[in-house]
Structures are given as structure tokens and as C-alpha cells.
User: Fold this.
Amino acid sequence: MAGTESSGVAAPAGASCGIVLLASGSGTLAQSVLDAATRADCPYRVIALVSDRDCEAVARAERAGLPTAVVRPGDHADRTDWDRALAETVGGFSPDWVVSAGFMRILGAQFLGRFADRVVNTHPALLPSFPGAHAVRDALAYGVRVTGCTVHLVDAGVDTGPVIAQRAVEILPGDTEPSLHERIKVVERELLVDVLAAAASGRLHIEGRKVHLK
Assistant:
């Protein structure tokens, strides 16, 4: 496919539920999903990682022996064309779920239409409070005593999709944006793995904006 680079080997055997990771940066969140997938009792397997750029997340997946693909926006005529190419690339791996693990692009209508109610994202705040790219900074500036992280389904808005699960993180005296964000990340990684295990086990039930964990 024009504008797409792929590499890797066959996806590892394991649980039947296949997950494709989307990542743009260092890949620490993606790594937590990869690490959990190596456990014997994990009900999902990671079948590929797709990025919008060359980054450490891609290198992590390659070191794990996974297929990777890079779909660069600059290689496409416009955002719609890139979104279509991204959907085709991810669809080529036939995932059951798609996980935005530090993916720094907004997914468009082509992509979300193809994977409706199957795209999961994490956010470092208790949505609907503090959406957007600066959630940790905004929570500190507002003066709240408790923040946290959210795992939610992705819709056409920015951090507006149905909430799947949330966990709280207390804001401590003297917290800075980096110190608070690091504590949130620890909880965020654990929560995402727990949600994916539930999804892979068929324990998510979606009713409009409400997602029930059976």
C-alpha cells in the first residue's frame, strides 16, 4: 500500500482474541500490553503494532517478534486518505480489538466506522473531567484532590467515548506534573491490561454510553 511500510514475522500463537496496538512514541504503555500477553493465562494476543512514524514503540514490537507497519500522514494526499490507509493497514491484521496506546493522532470516520465499538483508548484523568492533551497539568491547575485514569471506547469526539473503567489517583502535596503523571501511568498500565483481558474474555457488554464489565 502506498505510504505504508511493514515488517515483522508471523503473529505468535496463543489466545484467540487478537489485538492491534497503535502507538506513536516511547511505547511504554504498549509494552505493558505486550508483557501481559506473554503470561500463560492471558486471554488475548498482540498480533501487530501500527504507528504513524518511526519510533521506539515500533522497535519494541519488532524486538518482540511482532509484525509492524508505519503509515505516515505525509505520504498521503490529505487526512481522509491517511485515515483510509490506516484503516486498511490495521484491517489487514484482522484484529478483534484495536488499542490506542500512546497514539498521537485523532482517528477519523473511515477508521472508526470500520472498527466501531472495538477501539480502546486510555486517558490520564477521570473523564469527563480534564479531556485533551494536557489532562495532568489541567487537574493540578484546577486544584482537585483526586484525579486518575480512564479506559474508554473511542468515538468521533476528543476523549468523549463511553467509559469502560476508571481508577483514582490521589494528588499529593508537592506533586508536579511529571511526578503525578508517573503515578498515573502505573495505574493506567494495569487498568488497560485488565480491561483488555475482560474484552478478550467476552466480559464487556455495551449499551449505548454504558459499558458493563461482567
Observations:
- The first strand starts at residue 4 and ends at 7.
- Residues 121-214 form a domain with the Rossmann fold fold (CATH 3.40.50.170).
- Confidence is low (pLDDT under 50) at residues 1-14.
- Helices lie at 28-37, 56-63, 79-91, 109-114, 135-142, 177-200.
